[in-house]
Amino acid sequence: MTNEAPARRRATIKDVAKAADVSPMTVSNVLNGRLQYVSAATKKRVEREIERLGYRRQANARNLRVAEQRSIGMVIVDESPAFLADFFTCQVVAGLANVLNSADYTLTVQGMRGDQLETSMITRNFEVGGFCAMIAGSGEERRAAIRRLVDLDQPVIVFQEPITLPGADFCAIRQDDRGGGRLIGDHLLARRVEDFLAVVPAQDWPAIEERLAGLRESLAANGGGARLTVIASASESFADVQDVVARHLADHPLPGAIIGANDPIATAAMLYLFDHDVRVPDDVRIVGFNGFEAHRYARPRLTTVDSAAYQLGEQAGRAMLERLESGRFARNECVLPVHFDAGATT
Predict the structure, then answer these.
(1) Residue 59 lies inside a defined structural domain of this protein
(2) In a domain, 346, yes or no
(3) Are residues 181 and 296 in the same domain?
(4) What CA–CA distance (Å, rounded) separates 319 from 99?
(5) Residue 345 CB partners (closer than 8 Å, separation 6+)
(6) Is 258 within a domain?
(7) Residue 24 is part of which domain span?
(8) Is the Cα torsion angle 51, 327, 206, 166 positive or negative in sign?
(9) Of 66, 93, 278, 301, which has the maximum CB count within 10 A?
(10) How far apart are CA 13 and CA 182, in angstroms?
(11) Residue 186: inside a domain
(12) Are β-strands 304-306 and 339-341 bridged in parallel, bridged antiparallel, or unpaired?
């Protein structure tokens, strides 16, 4: 005898209609954006009941008879409306899309702020066969978002999050950002750098948290004598990075090294130094992270850590296809290595 609660029945369109005191056709009109037929008050009432009942739209019966769901959802939780302008995100999405495309699957991409995940259309319907996600925000916010996705009872892959959920239909795929942070620290300590300045975006990302953690581990293993200061830029834009570096250096001496959370941040800091007659690497050493093609255009060539962003997307695509074929993920975590690329800035 077990004490397990009976499985909860999924809410149907008729349940929503009854709770909102409208017809099923009115609910359908709200779900499909046919708002010319629905008053604002009725729309609001229907949406409230959809949320309360946890209703998620299912692909129509004809589609389910003809073919399985052949689309995967990619959720990008990012405060920036230009979320696809990020090099790392683009590489991950490209790798994922190409693997899925080769298996005749489509990829549905939706970017949103963290507070929009709960009510986003992509999480309220059954028109995708599984979810991949890249999530920014505090640790607590990210964990809440992951729980929300896992509770949808569909396979979930999360990028760059150092987390495992035994027993859940879940897989975490990331690169060794912490190891990359240690490589940076070891490289600079070998060059007798004692004063480190890290420039990060104000928006929290798990990968950047891991890079800083690895850097701190390297400094601690060296006896803890080196100093690390972390400053946050309002965004990753060129202007915001240069502004925060300028404000810091107005009140502090030059550090031995500036570490950008990614290559564009490092490059913006380096160009600020050039404009103020600071020599790189003679006066200040500069290190970035990610090693995408654009970093090769900087002169001197930027020292960086090469990311496996495209391969992360490919790995996720293969893992999702295998999961849909076998009914389970072969493993709940996959960590790809990173590689240190010594340029001319250190």
Answers:
(1) no
(2) no
(3) yes
(4) 10
(5) 270, 280, 281, 285, 286, 287, 298, 300, 301, 302, 303
(6) yes
(7) 13-53
(8) positive
(9) 93
(10) 53
(11) yes
(12) antiparallel
